[in-house]
Specification:
Layout lengths: L2 E8 L1 H5 L4 H16 L5 H16 L2 E7 L5 H16 L3 H4 L4 E9 L7 E8 L6 H6 L2 E9 L1 E3 L8 E4 L7 H7 L5 E5 L8 E2 L2 E2 H6 L10 E14 L2 E8 L5 H11 L4 E11 L2 E2 L4 E2 L6 H12 L14 H7 L21
Parallel strand pairs: 2-15, 4-13
Antiparallel strand pairs: 1-3, 2-4, 3-4, 5-12, 5-13, 6-7, 8-11, 9-10, 11-12, 13-14
Helix pairs in contact: 2-3, 3-4
């Protein structure tokens, strides 16, 4: 899991005098907006400037609904661009600045093939994201018995096939206890974990030799079998930070003297945020809707959370990856300019 953070750039005067940040930001936003929208009428220009000022004032943590397809980083860029467009902040103009004031990031990477809750921090809320990494998460996962892939999910190449016809529902239920509590788990090779500063998944896609990371301690609070219709089975899993559902499903298949891979994966809960109650769909990715969501979500978090400092570099090595991405760069997990 990883926290990814992107920053929009502003004049250095905004950051140099925190006490006057709001006023300076408003002035800077107005200049950028007017320069890009010279053909707008006066009322439209004032409206855009007000929206930009409101965007810069947003701070806290909220949740969005990530669909299948994009990576978490790509989704973050999509969210960022929608907000900038609404506020009338042109990318070309803003990419020339040197200092960052608007920060937006996600806490807890979801695979591109997965959907569900993605926690987002904006402004000072990006400093809260490390706490989301270690919090509990809940997933609904559908696995397929008798088939293994190199990515441990349906996006990969089939590497093995084994019989599964003798496996019963009772067989699966009886072994789930082995995967409950404090256990050791080997992370998948295709993951956001890094070697020499590069993601393992990136190295694998390049065809480079990658050694599996050693097994590490993880926690499963609860796991239950929701449905079994061979070769498919559905699990409801509540776990702690750093846990990989793909590895769990693969390990279950191996424990049953067969193999298994993930077909569908949905994160239904991360920390206090649930998919049903808190995750904003894309049509709600507006400055107004996010401001409302920040107010609602503030009551879900402990009061002291906002005062926490970012964790040490040791935590970063375990899965915290913060990056500043300028607006004129290509998008993607690999296109980061600075890792903190």
């Amino acid at each position: 899991m990883a926290v990814s953070e992107a920053a929009v750039v502003l004049p250095s005067s905004v950051k140099a005098d925190p006490g006057a940040a709001a006023a300076t930001a408003a002035t800077s936003v107005t200049r950028a907006t007017v320069a890009a929208a010279a053909t707008m009428g006066p009322e439209a220009q004032v409206s855009k400037a007000a929206l930009a000022t409101k965007l810069l004032s947003l701070s806290g943590v909220f949740a969005v609904h990530k669909p299948k397809g994009p990576t978490s980083a790509e989704l973050l860029n999509r969210l960022k661009e929608k907000l900038l467009a609404e506020a009338g902040m042109p990318s070309l103009e803003w990419s020339k600045r040197k200092k960052q004031t608007l920060k937006i990031g996600h806490g807890g990477t979801l695979d591109s093939a997965a959907r569900g809750v993605l926690v987002v921090g904006i402004g000072r809320g990006t400093k809260m994201l490390t706490s989301m990494l270690s919090g509990s998460k809940r997933y609904i996962a559908t696995g397929e018995l008798g088939k293994a892939t190199d990515t441990l999910d349906s996006t990969g190449k089939v590497t093995e096939e084994k019989p599964y016809d003798k496996i019963t529902q009772e067989d699966i239920e009886s072994i789930l206890q082995k995967f409950t509590g404090n256990i050791m788990q080997v992370p998948p090779l295709y993951s956001a974990l890094k070697k020499d500063g590069q993601r393992l998944s990136t190295l694998m896609k390049r065809g480079e030799a990658v050694e599996a990371k050693p097994a590490r301690p993880v926690t499963v609070y609860n796991i239950s079998l929701q449905k079994f219709q061979p070769p498919f089975f559905t699990l409801d899993v509540e776990c702690g930070g750093g846990f990989y559902i793909r590895s769990l499903v693969s390990d279950i298949g191996r424990e049953l003297s067969s193999c298994a891979t993930v077909l569908e994966l949905t994160r239904t809960k991360q920390g206090p945020f649930t998919l049903e109650d808190h995750a904003l769909p894309e049509d709600k990715w507006t400055i107004h809707d996010i401001a409302q969501s920040l107010e609602l979500c503030a009551s879900l978090l402990p009061a002291e959370l906002a005062l926490k400092k970012p964790k040490s570099e040791e935590s970063h090595e375990q899965g915290l990856s913060c990056a500043y991405i300028t607006l004129n760069e290509p998008k993607g997990d690999d296109d980061v300019t600075k890792t903190l």
